[in-house]
Amino acid sequence: LFLSLLLRCFFFFFLNLFLSLLLRYVVDVYQREFLALRDRLHSAEQENLRRSKELNLVLDEIKKAIAEKQALKDLNKTWETRLKLWNVSSSKTVLQLPSILHHLPHLQHPESLQPAVLVGQGRTGVSMVLGVPSVKREVHLYLPDTLTSLMSELSPAEREDCVIVVLVAEADQQYASSVAENLRSLFPAEIQSGLLEVVSPSSHFYPDFSKLRESFGDPKERVRWRTKQNLDYSFLMMYAQSKGTYYVQLEDDIVARPNYFTTMKNFALQQPSEEWMILEFSQLGFIGKMFKSVDLPMIVEFMLMFYKDKPIDWLLDHIMWVKVCNPEKDAKHCDRQKANLRIRFKPSLFQHVGVHSSLAGKIQKLKDKDFGKQNLHKGHINPAAELSSSLKTYQHFTLEKAYQGEDFFWAFTPVSGDFIRMRFFTPVRVERFFFRSGNIEHPGDKLFNTTVEVLPFDKEALTDGKEKSPKYHRTEDGFYRIAWFHNGVCEGEVEPSFGPLEAIRLTVITDSPVWVILSEVGLLCAVHFTAVAVPMSAVAALACRGMALPLNTAANNQLLRYR
């Protein structure tokens, strides 16, 4: 019995040992397989990540290629068929349609029609596109003044229905980029809203100008200048053609009349026929010439075929001659026919103000006699104040006349520390201010690096009576610096926390290279009012008591009764 029990114990012991070893072996096998599976899954995951990155890179390349192709397609819609025909099958039975590339073989470069610089929101669907070509000038850059004039005369609704395209027509990409960045800093809101765009062609867009031949007795430099000008106009028209209904060609050294946009639009819409080709809003050169966007492809093709032969105004005249003139009839009949295609609007809406031409060394004092004499100042009814300035007045153009809206203030070259001060007879709560320097005849006589400063009647208005740093920079004599002149203009609001003001001052921070004109001074004061009709003399009486009418108010037929 004992032996039987002993054998049974040994049997169960070895059975248990065997089962334990077997279980451990099975566990080890499964564990190794599990680890191997985990490693394979990890490797597969890494491989998937690698392939995903590769696919993303490929996708990005595809998107980039599609975007570039689309941009090229948008820029060159009119040539799409011709570009295909250029590479048409070599079959002897297929005819090759002549392509513009026969005249401009250098445009076969893949980047020739791709803008080198492009700034803007790509706005489309507007009524009017204003094209402003600009090149590097040796003496003076008029472009910022031109853009300021164009945009300041647009109403909010007109700003939404317009695109101003600046073409920096220089092959030097570094210069073009610097101009674009300068305009971005001068007009950030206009670029962000889509009103203003800046574009520059690739250097491959231009041919080798050294191979041009002289013609019409012009020296080689002038031939190069007019040839490049034709190409610049062509590029600008190609870029603009899909953006709006009408295209208006301008220059970078002009000023505009008030309400010019609506005037041009209405004149185009009121034409009894759609047969017209050019509406002229200036008699000078290529300024203020309106085209229908649907006509631009034909005009561009004609210009590019003969861009080396004649200047733009001659080419346009040739287009009209081809369209309507009968060779068997006399010149008078031809002129009458062309008059139906080229229609003049008077008075001119744009005036040429540049003196230094884009052609190096050329002085060009051209003026459009149909533009008429424009106001050189704009008046507002401002609160009565004692006026003083450290600037030396030129002739009869006094500060008092500018403040009262009778004329502009003109002074000799400002230096650092010069000022213009308006000290109110009684403290005035000013809500808004507007100062404009320069005018149409002297657009460069502006205030540069100049500040607007206010002197609160309550000297502790911004510090709550505590010794702490105020929100605005405080000068040694108690003024607070609240704004800077920007491209000759300064406008803004005065925070209510300042309370009534004792004075407002303009301070020149650095020496100026030019004389200065203050053509507009407007101060809007906080008052409660209801409108009633009273004589104009009462308006002046209230103004002398420190009251002010709102900016841009027509005060010749009604008065504001204050309470």
SSE layout and pairing:
Blueprint: H1 2-75, H2 80-86, E1 117-119, E2 126-134, H3 143-152, H4 156-160, E3 162-168, H5 173-186, H6 188-193, E4 196-200, H7 220-240, E5 244-249, E6 254-256, H8 260-269, E7 278-280, E8 289-292, H9 296-305, H10 312-324, H11 331-339, E9 342-344, E10 350-352, E11 385-389, H12 399-403, E12 409-411, E13 419-428, E14 430-437, E15 450-456, E16 473-474, E17 480-484, E18 489-493, E19 501-508, E20 516-525, E21 529-532, H13 536-544, E22 559-562
Parallel strand pairs: 2-3, 2-5, 3-4, 7-9
Antiparallel strand pairs: 1-4, 5-8, 6-10, 7-8, 11-13, 12-20, 13-19, 14-18, 14-20, 15-17, 15-19, 16-17, 21-22
What do these coordinates show?
By secondary structure, the chain is an alpha+beta fold. It has 3 domains: 53-89 and 96-101, no CATH class; 106-364, Alpha-Beta Complex (Spore Coat Polysaccharide Biosynthesis Protein SpsA, Chain A), CATH 3.90.550.10; 385-522, Galactose-binding domain-like (Jelly Rolls, Sandwich). It is 34% helix and 21% strand. It contains 13 helices and 22 strands. It has helices at 2-75, 80-86, 143-152, 156-160, 173-186, 188-193, 220-240, 260-269, 296-305, 312-324, 331-339, 399-403, 536-544, and strands at 117-119, 126-134, 162-168, 196-200, 244-249, 254-256, 278-280, 289-292, 342-344, 350-352, 385-389, 409-411, 419-428, 430-437, 450-456, 473-474, 480-484, 489-493, 501-508, 516-525, 529-532, 559-562. The strands form 5 sheets. An 8-stranded mixed sheet has the order 1-4-3-2-5-8-7-9, with helices on both faces. A 6-stranded antiparallel sheet has the order 11-13-19-15-17-16. A hairpin with an 8-residue loop joins β7 and β8. α7 packs antiparallel against α9. The longest helix is centred in the first third of the chain and has 74 residues, at 2-75. The relative contact order is 0.08.
